[in-house]
Amino acid sequence: MSKINAELRHFRRLWIFVTVVTVALVGVTVTLNVMHAPGGLVARSIGGTPPIFLFLCIELIARIPATSRLLGIGRVIGSVAVAGLAFAISYQQQMEFIRNIGYAGWVAYAYPIIVDGVMMVATLSLVEVTRKVRTLRAELADASEAPATAAAVLSPDDLAKEQKGREFREAAARARDAAIQGVPSRKPFELTPAAEAA
After folding, report:
1. d(CA 5, CA 186)
2. Most buried residue among 67, 86, 113, 186 by CB atoms closer than 10 A?
3. Which range of residues forms the domain containing residue 16?
4. C-alpha–C-alpha distance, residues 1 and 5, integer Å
5. How many independent structural domains does the chain possess?
6. pTM (predicted TM-score)
């Protein structure tokens, strides 16, 4: 159990690190998308939504366990569709922004892929770490319940009580059978020597 606790603490720290990195990368992507969006609060708000929608889809998949194979496949397909559209929109807006600030050639095409690619890797890593933490918590719960169950089954006090109860039931059954047959039972109805002498 101590090994599971140590591994769980490690992955919890790793989860915090990956979450911070993922949020930071999402913030960078949103900023680049907003910088290229047309003027106006509404337009800039819409321009920054694709990376956020992608992040939310992956978070929902990571945190909600699948209860049905069909529903799980549907969620994955929906997330892939959202990821593809969000990447296309984000790539176009970032590329235009990079061009507007003076970069040209392959740099303008590569930089959006780098930003969104690292964000995708960080988000998928967050999914894996979250699942690992969930698995370790389940193993820790099972390990903590197992000794209690074993103690309840193999408790010496319970075994002694069960044995006494079994002996009492057997003695009562013998006395009942003896009474039905008309033969006096030796115990506990046997007279003591002092009573016989009297």
Report:
1. 61
2. 86
3. 2-153
4. 6
5. 2
6. 0.59
